[in-house]
Amino acid sequence: MTLPAGQYDIGELPRFGLPRFADRFPDNVTKIHLDIGGDVEQQVEVADKLLTLPRVKQISDFHCVTTWSCLGLEWEGISFKDLYTNIVLPLARPRPEASFVVFRCQDGYRSSLPLNDLLADDIILADRLNGEALSIGNGAPLRLIAPAHYAYKSPKHLKRIDFMLSDNGYRPAGLRFMEHPRARVDKEERGIGIPGWLLRFVYRRSVAPNRKLFKQALERHLTQSSEKP
Ligand SMILES: Nc1nc2c(c(=O)[nH]1)N[C@H]1C(S)=C(S)[C@@H](COP(=O)(O)O)O[C@H]1N2
Ligand SMILES: [Mo]
To answer: 7, 41, 71, 100: least surrounded by Cβ within 10 Å?
Structure first.
């Protein structure tokens, strides 16, 4: 397996993200509740309908923009394209030009991708990883997996998907330069306005301290929830 430019193999999938999300956790990690909205004719809640879609399994590599990668992960869930053609189009009926897609998460995180990118065959909504239900650290109960894009485009703890006519009014979860509209790994689109190779050096220093921050926050969270009556 070859690593994309500027990436290294970290050997496992750590709990990771923007620092301000380290202490935020989803309320609901077992039952999937997914709302479809935005510029659509009808808002829909797809929780049970998801179960009617075919299950898919896929092995793919995962690349965080801060330069770590985790190779050969086996994700299981449903394909985004199936959700779009079998549920979004017939039931929510988005406006034909609604091609800016926004994902909203239980921890307040959000990200976006163009509809065209999301209709690629390797984009899935995953509820299982390496043969087990998704853990709270890695995105339970449901997350997007977009392997060709930096992992900030793979939102965890999904609760809502909006199909929008434009990106007007969309606020990225981090600073504006940090969210490239497409963030393709093979083009090293790490951010906006700063070359990818330059961002590598800045981001790489944050990996170890941020990983520790996320790990300790999860440990605290798990202890607190187990102490609750
Ligand atoms: N809900 C949510 N999704 C998120 C994030 C987050 O903080 N919250 N961080 C993103 C980033 S920057 C990365 S690298 C991956 C990390 O996924 P992991 O914790 O399963 O390794 O999730 C992405 N999706
Ligand atoms: Mo990331």
So the answer is: 41
- Residue 103 structural domain: 8-165+178-210
Give the 3-state secondary structure of residue 63: strand
The CATH number that applies at residue 135 is: 3.90.420.10
SS3 of residue 157 by DSSP: coil
44 pLDDT above the threshold of 70: yes
Residue listed under structure tokens 């959700």 = 83
- Asked whether residue 221 is domain-assigned, the answer is no
Mean per-residue pLDDT, 191-210: 96
* Token pair 């965890």: residue: 156
Q: What is the dihedral of CA 183, 184, 188, 189, to 10 degrees?
A: -30
Question: pLDDT class for 1, splitting at 50, 70, 90?
Answer: low
